[in-house]
Design a protein that fits this description.
By secondary structure, this protein is of the alpha/beta class. The chain folds into three domains: 36 residues, no CATH class; 96 residues; 266 residues, Metallo-dependent phosphatases (Purple Acid Phosphatase, chain A, domain 2), CATH 3.60.21. 27% of the residues lie in helices and 25% in strands. It contains ten helices and 16 strands. A six-stranded mixed β-sheet has the order 9-8-7-6-15-16, with helices on one face. α7 packs across α8. The longest helix is centred in the middle third of the chain and has 25 residues. The chain is elongated and about 130 Å long. 28% of the residues are buried. About 3% of the residues have low confidence. Bound molecules: zinc ion. Zinc ion binds next to loops.
């Protein structure tokens, strides 16, 4: 009977027949209907299920309300809703209308629905996609270790012969461009060293002199070719030095700034090349003294130790166990090898200092000489070059900033020689 009615669109469930037989159904006792609690969710009146190990399919699920939550459908067929999930794009629905008797004896038109859908067994161990996605979006590299690596080494930077104010070639603007390129290359070099696990314990800013060009006394037409006056040369040199200290010093546990007296830095030239006062009256001294004062006021730079000579032409410092002797180079006379040997002997006697490595400048070109007891490294520069020098010799030098590592445990006490 139920089947026959269903084929005509009249849905009769087993409970309806039971109610009818008990005489409590609407057709015999309309009041009885009101005593039954209203269903909280659309009830499936009938349907079929076909279940396999990985899922199955519901067919002919007939309800009086649209179906959005399938939980009670699974429960109706004794399936755990936590174990299965409806495959969204397999849901099919048809709807039709049917006349329904109301409590007051009139009739109304109601909507009825029939559904079919496939479902699958939920995969065990599935994890939340949003969490995975957020992990990707919020990823950041593990901060690099700042602990110095072994063996201890110091990164040495030759700040040499910038000659700010020199108007030849592309002049001071060209020098500044090359200085910026050098600083960027040095920063990349430090990053690459760190990626290899090499983290120097310290940095040595070696001011090898001639940061300013001066305005007279070096060569015949100097006053007419410089592109900055003395005040601007000194201020620019201070700015440039400070920029390098700020960019690099905070990367290191220890930092040393050691400076060398120089020829272009002579501040009180009379009519000749020499100071009318004394050797201490030098731009390198003024720049070093001012930087030392400035850095004490800056929390990230106050760890820099300054080694600014008064009028000594050789500056000595020890970093990572290596005794370094530095000189601008303008005082070298005769054969350089002999000069270095005599000065080394002098340092042993007067300062009880045995040089492991000499670092010089002034000649603007790259050179590395192994003299046995010590190596001499000659720093390059980023100045605009010299027409006079090229005209006279045919030679010119690769512009750049010389850097290398020193450490008492390194072979020959130095390594990683670069021109940036
Ligand atoms: Zn010089």
């Amino acid at each position: 009977m139920a089947k026959e009615l269903a084929e005509h669109g009249h849905l009769i469930g087993k409970s309806t027949i039971n109610y009818h037989r008990a005489g409590t159904c609407k057709c015999t006792n309309p009041a009885a209907v009101d005593d039954r609690p209203a269903p909280a969710a659309p009830r499936a009146e009938s349907g079929k299920v076909d279940v396999g190990p990985d899922g199955g399919e519901f067919t002919e699920i007939k309800t009086s309300e649209p179906l959005t939550d399938w939980t009670h459908i699974f429960e109706r067929f004794n399936l755990d809703p936590e174990q299965f999930t409806i495959v969204d794009d397999t849901v099919r629905m048809s709807m039709w209308q049917q006349s329904k008797g109301l409590e007051d004896g009139t009739r109304d038109i109601v909507n009825l629905y029939s559904y079919r859908a496939k479902f699958t067994r939920k995969k065990q161990g599935m994890i939340d996609y949003a969490t995975l996605r957020d992990q990707i979006r919020n990823w950041a590299p593990t901060p690099a270790s700042t602990t110095p690596s072994r063996p201890p080494v110091t990164y040495v930077i030759g700040m040499a012969d910038w000659q700010l104010g020199k108007g030849e070639g592309d002049g001071t603007p060209g020098t500044l461009r090359r200085l910026n390129a050098s600083l960027e290359a040095i920063t990349r070099d430090l990053d690459q060293l760190a990626a290899q696990g090499i983290r120097p314990e310290g940095v040595l800013f070696a001011n090898l002199g001639d940061h300013t060009e001066n305005v007279a006394g070096s060569y015949a037409s100097q006053t007419h070719t410089v592109d900055l006056n003395m005040r601007d040369q000194l201020n620019l040199a201070l700015e440039q030095n400070l920029a390098w200290l700020k960019a690099l010093a905070p990367r290191f546990k220890t930092a040393t700034y050691a400076a060398c007296m120089c020829n272009h830095g002579q501040l009180s030239r009379g009519n000749g090349r020499d100071n009318v006062t004394d050797d201490a009256d030098n731009a390198t001294g003024l720049i070093g003294d001012t930087l030392a004062t400035l850095c004490k006021l800056h929390p990230e730079l106050e760890h820099i130790e300054f080694n600014i000579p008064r009028d000594e032409m050789i500056t000595t410092t020890t970093v990572s166990g290596v005794n370094m002797a530095m000189a601008h180079g303008h005082k070298i006379s005769g054969a350089e090898e002999t000069w270095l040997a005599k000065q080394s002997q002098n340092l042993v006697h007067t300062r009880r200092f045995i040089p492991d490595l000499w670092f010089t400048a002034h000649r603007h070109s790259a050179a590395v000489n192994d003299y046995g007891p010590y190596t001499r490294i000659q720093a390059t520069t980023v100045d605009p070059g010299s027409k006079w020098f090229t005209d006279s010799t045919g030679a010119y030098s690769r512009p750049g900033t010389t850097t290398f590592l020193v450490g008492a445990d390194l072979p020959g006490m130095w390594d990683h020689y670069r021109i940036h």
